[in-house]
Design a protein that fits this description.
Helices cover 13% and strands 26% of the residues. The chain has 84 residues and is α+β, with helices and mostly antiparallel strands. It has one domain (2-78): Roll (Ubiquitin-like (UB roll)). A hairpin with a 2-residue loop joins β3 and β4 (57-58). The N and C termini lie far apart (41 Å).
Length: 84
């Protein structure tokens, strides 16, 4: 199955070079893949994962381990942000 992974701010550095300009890549996954498995496969440190959305819906941290992704999903991930 295919999903789109979007990474924002400093997390874009974890994308392959062809995805950095548009901050997104299409991923080929096994059926039943979870959010955590995708994040782990890109070697993103857990402390940098703050906001996670699937198709625009927030996913709580404790649900990311077991929540499966489906064909066509868009997984978007943001690091902690600070502003002033």
């Amino acid at each position: 199955m295919q999903i789109t992974l979007k990474l924002f701010a400093g997390l874009t550095d974890y994308l392959p070079s062809q995805g950095r300009e548009g901050n997104a890549v299409v991923c080929e996954l096994k059926e039943g893949a979870t959010i955590s498995q995708v994040i782990d496969s890109y070697n993103m440190p857990p402390k940098l994962i703050h906001l996670v959305l699937v198709n625009g819906h927030y996913v709580e941290p404790q649900k990311r381990i077991d929540q499966q992704l489906h064909e066509g999903d868009v997984l978007a991930v943001w690091p902690p942000v600070a502003g002033g």
